Amino acid sequence: MSTALLESRSAALEKTAWGEKFRFVQPRNVVFWMYLWLCGVGAVKGWQMFAPYSGYFGRSLLVAGVVAVISVLVWGWWFRHIDRFERQPVGLVVTGFVWGATAATFTIALPGNSALGSLYTKLSGQVWAQDWHAGLSAPLVEETAKGVGIIVLLALAPRLVRTVTDGLLLGAFIGLGFQTSEDFLYSLAGATQGFGAHQTDGLLGSIATRTYSDIISHPLFTALFCAGVMYLIGSSAQPRRIGRGLALIVAPIVIHGIWDSMVAISGGSNALVLVIMIGVTIFALTALWIAFVWAHPREAHFVRDVLGPEVESGVLTDDEVTAAGGWRQQRQFVRAASNRTERRHRRLLVRAALDLCADLAAGKGADSADVVESRSEIARLRLQSSS
């Protein structure tokens, strides 16, 4: 293989740290102890909040817990699915989720929201605060509380958190943790309304409302915010882009603020609430799409560097490597097939190319047993196609 291509592979693996492991226990890292303290305080506060309701409202809490677990599994699967190139270590993902579910929610956000709500009431009166408190408090306090999580993860795993894509995906899991705790709080509020006379109706109503609203909620907000933080900080694998960073930090704050203030902005008009909701949804999904479009070229560049020697050796074709670099490129590659069988075959080849990329990362570019097996699988797929 060409020395230049092998050097490019090594440089890409060094910059991205793809394939590296995450070690959570770091006694000499002060951030590790801060993380344990803040998450521990959050867990205790959450327990103190829910424990008094475990008797009479025990069944409702159980149902809410089951729904929360299902929601986490579904959203977690989706976030891992879109983690296209080299998936973040599970330990790092769980660390971010726990931060969002405990420290961000109970240690920072709840006290912060309460303090701002009290301040708004004193300055502008009860009625004004009731209308605007959520929209002018939650976006600032909650996005900051969750956004601190990416700084914590960066301090715990500086070699693993390097690109905007890392910020997007880890931010989504931090937001998912926050969303899970918040959904649990809303479910409890729904079950206890009317002094608990209609627990099931209130609980199901809250779950239905939150399930819909979770589409445009904390995972999306935090993914954008954390991606913006990564642009502001920069790294050896990610050039600093101040403008993009500020745009991605401001966007979720604005979206969150409008989402929480829809009723106040609309003046109580249901039709206007619907219009605002549709507009915010379109804007939020567009912002997320733009964030991925911005992040994609860097990741695709690294994929090409890692798989470049495989093209020279004939394991992969240039078109297959290009298709492995992004969803759009894969779709174009698959659609160019002449029939359904070939389209399926091309999807399998792209998946195998990504598996080879992951195995090369895990082996630091060496011809490990996994790498040899991945190459054999690609050869098998190619032979199957020709037969």
Q: Any key phrases for this structure?
A:
mainly alpha; 387 residues; elongated; 15 helices; 80% helix
Structure notes:
This protein is an all-alpha fold and 387 residues long. The chain has 2 domains: 16-295, no CATH class; 314-386. 80% of the residues lie in helices and 0% in strands. The chain is built from 15 helices and no strands. It has helices at 3-16, 30-50, 58-82, 90-124, 126-156, 164-192, 199-213, 218-233, 242-260, 262-266, 270-312, 318-324, 327-335, 340-362, 369-386. Helix 3 runs antiparallel to helix 6, helix 4 crosses helix 6 and helix 9 packs antiparallel against helix 11 (270-312). The radius of gyration is 23 Å and the shape is elongated. Mean pLDDT is 83; it is low at 194-198.
Helix-strand blueprint:
Layout: H1 3-16, H2 30-50, H3 58-82, H4 90-124, H5 126-156, H6 164-192, H7 199-213, H8 218-233, H9 242-260, H10 262-266, H11 270-312, H12 318-324, H13 327-335, H14 340-362, H15 369-386
Helix pairs in contact: 1-11, 2-4, 3-6, 3-7, 4-5, 4-6, 5-6, 5-8, 5-9, 6-7, 6-8, 8-9, 8-11, 9-11, 11-12, 12-13, 12-14, 13-14, 14-15
